[in-house]
Amino acid sequence: xxxxxxxxxxxxxxxxxxxxxxxxxxxxxxxxxxxxxxxxxxxxxxxxxxxxxxxxxxxxxxxxxxxxxxxxxxxxxxxxxxxxxxxxxxxxxxxxxxxxxxxxxxxxxxxxxxxxxxxxxxxxxxxxxxxxxxxxxxxxxxxxxxxxxxxxxxxxxxxxxxxxxxxxxxxxxxxxxxxxxxxxxxxxxxxxxxxxxxxxxxxxxxxxxx
Length: 210
Fold this sequence. Notes:
elongated, 7 helices, mainly alpha
């Protein structure tokens, strides 16, 4: 019984695509777990990682508009977008948590965090986008491979930045009420230690001397 299978370059592309999908999933999982450990919550990393699909969609849209193909170089660019896109959400979520520790309500905290962090987000994203321009404008041998990586980074970071400043605050406002900020436990433990120290001091003062 005969069967149909990929041969030559098409087979290599299929195998490379499967490998990059696995790499993308593993990179996504590793970043998520690191953020979960940092924020001591699964909700905050979830809000942050919402920007990654937006960046990937923007990168694919850039490939479509530029007429480039989804090859190994563009797939490497998609993996790079995981870290490049997550940083914007980290800036907002981390500062919003700090404002919550200072006593602000969730909505007020995320609004103020978004306004204060808007300038750093724009500056870092603009520097990343401008860094991809030489890759897009490259000529000579190997310019096609540099073009695909540059297009993915340029389009992915641009679109994710625009959407992040709207989506991250909205989802943070919706989900943050189900978790506490990382500084809450530290403040609670510090307060307990101070109370125990005060109790021990009072007990020592009230003990009669022999």
